[in-house]
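Here is a protein:
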Amino acid sequence: MEINWTRIKDSLHNMAENSGASIDYARGNVIGVVSTLMAVGYEFKDAWREVIRCLPDKVRVEAIPAVWLNVEGEWSPQFIKALVDGHIVRFQDLLKEIPEDMRKVTREGDIYDLTCRDEMLDRYLHICSIFQRETEREYALWREQSNSNPELEPQIRYSFAPFRKSGSQYIAEWAVNDYRKEYKNVVNWHGQNTSRWLYAGCLLVQDGRVSIHT
């Protein structure tokens, strides 16, 4: 069976914020695409990489099944609210800061032939999955250790800032915090207070190469 990639890209346009499609409809589209690719012999990881290439820049993370990113359940309400409120930068806003010619750079020796843009999207979604994972973990501990005492419920806050430029590096810092934790004077060598951090790091792009540092 020959894959019609133009048709797949058209279908995945429903994943875009401005598509007018509902979240459920968009999620159905991306599940359908992956199912189709797997039906013709793709392993999931290979089907997912092809989807990464075809997803629109204005992708709605909340329409991607969280389980595909190795986290359980549905996206948490806290995560969705952080996206809506702008505490988590949208992928398209990160991408527009990268020069257009750099977005097309392909890492030498990459058997998947992913461009810088595609690797950025893959890493961006991975960071979103960390937010979800840490939220799940904190709530599981809360239920186990305090019997879901509402006074001790986690107060999860996320931050994922736009790129700042440092020489040839583009750096986007991110963190997930629990504001129920006691605020202490604990500062790292970047001058950041880490007393409420659950997990933190940065997305780094340099000369078309993409990495996460934690």
Observations:
- Residues 66-213 form one domain.
- The mean pLDDT is 92.
- The first strand starts at residue 156 and ends at 160.
